[in-house]
Structures are given as structure tokens and as C-alpha cells.
């Protein structure tokens, strides 16, 4: 059972999975199991996410993804991770953020947002 693994032990298993397999497993998680896994990851664990892990993680609700990942990253880290996602996924993410999410953005998150906007008209 997943609850018997540490986050690092479970991550070793997830490292070998496809995005779809990860999403299938995570669909069985309740809030407690999700918190146990993500809260137990170290910064190094997150830095070593596979492409499949990032793509599965980006399917989390936008607020949860922001809080678990982007809030703790530098500008360069956010830019690197963001390249794994399509424009449609990034739009879904941005439009899924709450008012509170926007109010609590880190400097790095705002900098990425403004660098990523190619047309100021999109802001208005």
C-alpha cells in the first residue's frame, strides 16, 4: 500500500511511470495521501522530476500546483518547468488561478508571467 512508503520510496516507483500511469495512481489518492506524498518531497526530489512527473503534476488544480511548486521556485526554475507545457495548458493554468493566487504571487511568478506575455493586449 502506498501509505507505507516514504515520499522518496514512492517517487522511485513513479520515476519509472508514464504520465498516464502516474495520473491513474494519483486518481486513487485522497487529500491525506496526496499531502503525504508531496509534502514529503525535498527540493532535490522536485528538481529530479521526470518529464512524466511534471506533466502529471501540471494536471493538479492550478492553485495546488502553484502552491506546491511555483511558489518555491526561482524565475529560472519556473521558466524551465513551464517549457514542458503547451500554450493551452498554460492558459488553463493561468485562468484557473484564484484572485487570492494572483494576490499572493511571488516576485519570480510575476516576472515569468510578464515575460511570457507576448502581447500586452492579452493582459487587458
Characterise this structure.
With 124 residues, this protein is mostly helical. It has two domains: 1-57, no CATH class; 61-124, no CATH class. It is built from ten helices and no strands. It has helices spanning 7-14, 19-26, 31-39, 43-47, 51-57, 62-68, 75-82, 87-96, 99-103, 107-116. Helix 7 packs across helix 10. The mean pLDDT is 90.
Give the tags:
124 residues, mainly alpha, 62% helix, 0% strand
Strand and helix layout:
Elements: H1 7-14, H2 19-26, H3 31-39, H4 43-47, H5 51-57, H6 62-68, H7 75-82, H8 87-96, H9 99-103, H10 107-116
Sheet having the most strands: none
How much strand content do the residues show? under 5%
Shape: globular
**What Rg is obtained from the alpha carbons, in whole angstroms?**
15 Å
Helix-strand pattern, N to C? HHHHHHHHHH
Number of strands: 0
Number of H/I helices: 10
Number of individual domains: 2
The termini sit apart by: 49 Å
The amount of helix comes to: 55-70%
Low-confidence stretches: none
How confident overall, as mean pLDDT? 90
* Helix-and-strand structural type: mainly alpha
Amino acid at each position: 500500500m502506498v501509505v507505507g512508503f516514504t515520499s522518496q520510496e514512492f517517487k522511485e516507483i513513479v520515476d519509472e511511470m508514464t504520465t498516464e500511469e502516474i495520473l491513474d495512481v494519483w486518481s486513487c489518492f485522497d487529500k491525506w495521501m496526496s499531502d503525504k506524498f508531496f509534502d514529503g518531497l525535498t527540493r532535490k526530489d522536485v528538481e529530479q522530476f521526470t518529464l512524466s512527473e511534471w506533466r502529471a503534476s501540471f494536471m493538479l488544480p492550478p492553485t495546488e500546483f502553484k502552491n506546491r511548486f511555483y511558489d518555491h521556485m526561482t524565475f529560472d526554475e519556473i521558466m524551465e518547468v513551464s517549457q514542458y507545457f503547451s500554450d493551452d495548458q498554460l492558459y488553463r493554468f493561468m485562468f484557473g488561478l484564484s484572485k487570492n493566487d494572483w494576490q499572493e504571487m511571488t516576485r519570480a511568478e510575476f516576472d515569468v508571467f510578464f515575460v511570457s506575455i507576448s502581447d500586452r493586449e492579452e493582459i487587458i
